Amino acid sequence: MPPSENEKITIRTLQARKRQGGRISAVTSYDYHTTRAVSEAGIDLILVGDSMGMVLHGRENTLKVSIDDIIYHTRLVARAEPRSLVVADMPYGSYHVSCEQAVRNALRLIKEGGAEAVKVEGGRSRFGVVDALLRAEIPVLGHLGLTPQSVHSLGGFRVQGKMRDKAREIMDDARELEARGVFALVLESIPMELGKAVTQTLTIPTIGIGAGPNCDGQILVFHDLMGFTRLYMPKFVRQYADLYGMIQTALRAYIHDIREGRFPDDRESYHLKGDIDEWLK
């Protein structure tokens, strides 16, 4: 059964959804007001993603996002008290030096930011980090396929798993991450056949982004699905609105009204209870 409108979504909710054959909805969010809207709409999972480096900071990739950036935005999201499960990204450099560093930074995301789980990119090279986080009782969302923090080593934002060896590696890593205890797994930019195979193999939910329609859930960047930009969109993005166009229309109307002296009018102005000339004598 789906949760009631006011029931808090937890990792158990998402895992039950998989067992019952339901689908999971997820988006990124980075601020209070977006989170209020997202939660009220009924989104199951909010990711405070390091994608903010590209959609908020205007950078070419996610690598310069810091742990303090993620904590700040997670705090804004948590302040909205969303019904959705709040997951914070572990940004590049926050878990790459040691397991101790990873736990310390993840604890900051939970304690200072208000996250309810963290996301870690990578497979076998991150098993030790995942183990350390889970020992610290921090829920972990895994992430396989295209891992944007590895953009340089991957040679760009390329589809992963198109060759047999890489597809087998993704499948093996998915099985191992499940065995180690991650509560769900993001699959990014992989062939839909591989996304389906991984989803059917695992008992934990898969959440796809460019991994085809057969995953247990889907996630998109909020700014992408809302049409908040005119920049390049990946093939897998479906835009459900044209906020960029709406914003342009609104701003041009605002400019026009100012130039024509139509804004503000008497109703939008404050008034004295008396005669100004008398007041100023």
Major sheet details: 8 strands, parallel, barrel
Question: Mind telling me the C-alpha Rg?
Answer: 22 Å
User: What is the correct CATH architecture of the largest domain?
Assistant: Alpha-Beta Barrel
Shape: elongated
Kindly state the mean pLDDT as a whole number?
96
State the domain count: 2
CATH superfamily grouping of the largest domain: Phosphoenolpyruvate-binding domains
How is this structure best described in words?
The chain is α/β, with parallel strands linked by helices and 281 residues long. It has two domains: 11-242, Phosphoenolpyruvate-binding domains (TIM Barrel); 245-279, no CATH class. It is 41% helix and 14% strand. It has an eight-stranded parallel barrel with strand order 1-2-3-4-5-6-7-8, surrounded by seven helices. The longest helix is centred in the middle third of the chain and has 17 residues, at 164-180.
SSE diagram, text form:
Layout: H1 11-19, E1 24-28, H2 32-41, E2 45-48, H3 52-55, H4 67-79, E3 85-89, H5 99-113, E4 117-121, H6 127-135, E5 140-145, H7 151-154, H8 164-180, E6 184-188, H9 192-201, E7 206-209, E8 217-220, H10 222-225, H11 243-259, H12 276-279
Parallel strand pairs: 1-2, 1-8, 2-3, 3-4, 4-5, 5-6, 6-7, 7-8
Give a quick rundown of the structure:
By secondary structure, the protein is α/β, with parallel strands linked by helices. The protein has helices at 11-19, 32-41, 52-55, 67-79, 99-113, 127-135, 151-154, 164-180, 192-201, 222-225, 243-259, 276-279; strands at residues 24-28, 45-48, 85-89, 117-121, 140-145, 184-188, 206-209, 217-220. The chain folds into two domains: 11-242, Alpha-Beta Barrel (TIM Barrel), CATH 3.20.20.60; 245-279, no CATH class.
